[in-house]
Amino acid sequence: MRGKVADASVLAAIIFGEPEAEAAERLLGRTSIFVPPILDYELASVALKKSRRHREHRGEIAFALSTSRWLKVSYVHTPRTEICDLALRTDLSFYEASYLWIALALSCPLATFDQQLARTARSSGVDALVVR
What we know:
The chain is α/β, with parallel strands linked by helices. The protein has helices at residues 8-15, 21-28, 39-53, 58-67, 80-90, 94-106, 115-123, and strands spanning 4-6, 33-35, 74-75, 110-112, 128-130. It has one domain (4-130): Rossmann fold (3-Layer(aba) Sandwich), CATH 3.40.50. It has a five-stranded parallel β-sheet with strand order 3-2-1-4-5, with helices on both faces. α1 packs across α2, α3 runs antiparallel to α4 and α5 (80-90) packs across α6. The model has no long low-confidence stretch (mean pLDDT 91).
């Protein structure tokens, strides 16, 4: 299958205009992006943290979060039991294992900022694309 799995760290950089946004966009290119349904909650959590740290930018952060629904991503159903098993085997969080599970299931590369997730993906046979 063509496309890439992008974790929340990569997509949050783009949505919230972080310094790594350009590198993340180049890494993803113009291909299909696959994500688990938990992405929406992870992005909301990032927005909450940013809003608490940067009260003066709450409006901009809320706007960025509200426009993130226009992301061109494909949500992939992720079976909770299989992901729990994968998380236990790999010592990843449930959230991280969700992205890895999709990459394994679809035979797609995984784009992330998370070095541990990248190492685990590589040792699982997944091409990990690390944004630098």
